[in-house]
Amino acid sequence: MQSIILEEKEIYGCIKELLNECKTTSVEVNNARYHHNSSYFVAPSIVERGILPLNELNKKGLANISDEVLELMDDPSSHANGNEGVSLSVVGLEDLSEKEIEYDPFSKEQVDFIVSDEVKAFRSSANYGNEFIAFGGIEPEKLKSIDIRLIKYIESFVDSDKHVGLEDLIERYRCIKEVAMSLKENNMDIPLREMSSEDGVALDIDKVIDAPILLLKQ
């Protein structure tokens, strides 16, 4: 796998071009009611281990949370999912009251895991009117799609002349490659979709894996 050393001004365009080159055809996801958002940096772990609640993350050594913090997080009035549940959201609900806030899972800054509607979850409106809690975590087999919107994320900065940490952007790109590698290593037939245009276009896993490593010129 080759490496490419880039000037700062080249990073934005290069990542967009590489992602576009990996695009294949549109993939429709069915029987998937729930969304779970994560950072790019924990997405590879979710592909391998599933979506884990705080106590399981601690037990497996994937997090280092003190007993005091765990006790605070277990208060459902402030943390709806507590220590033993994971937070999900459902879009398109028509029974939200005017006072309820609707969570938008289509963030360009996060990874959107689409979760099977076979997952048992109950509604909790403590924070958002469309939030649901699944206790015990969600197995990798219940993941239906992994959606990213990195091109949209890049364009939001280019269009507004705002600055984004280029090392952070390269790290997000690297995480996408790790997600693809984890999918292949675990023989998971789950689409990895670039959803910036909301057209369901999947990325070719092998092309993502073989895409060059990007380095910022010092």
Task: Please tell me about this protein's structure.
This protein is of the alpha+beta class and 218 residues long. The chain has helices at residues 8-21, 43-49, 54-59, 67-73, 150-160, 166-185, 205-210; strands at residues 3-6, 23-26, 34-38, 85-89, 111-115, 122-123, 131-135, 143-148, 192-194, 201-203, 213-216. The strands form four sheets. The protein has a four-stranded mixed beta sheet with strand order 3-5-8-9, with no helix packed on it. Strands 4-7-6 form a three-stranded antiparallel beta sheet, with no helix packed on it. Strands 1-11 form a two-stranded parallel sheet. The radius of gyration is 18 Å and the shape is globular. The mean pLDDT is 89.
Key attributes of the depicted protein:
11 strands; 218 residues; single chain; four-stranded mixed beta sheet; 7 helices; three-stranded antiparallel beta sheet; 33% helix; alpha+beta
- The low-confidence parts are none
- Number of helices in the DSSP assignment: 7
Q: Span between N and C termini? A: 21 Å
What is the global morphology?
globular
Rg result: 18 Å
The major sheet is characterized as: 4 strands, mixed
Please report which band the strand proportion falls in: under 5%, 5-15%, 15-25%, 25-35%, 35-45% or over 45%: 15-25%
Number of strands: 11
Estimate the helix proportion, in percent. 25-40%
Give the strand line-up of the largest sheet: 3-5-8-9
Structural class, from helix and strand content?
Answer: alpha+beta
The overall pLDDT, averaged over residues, is 89
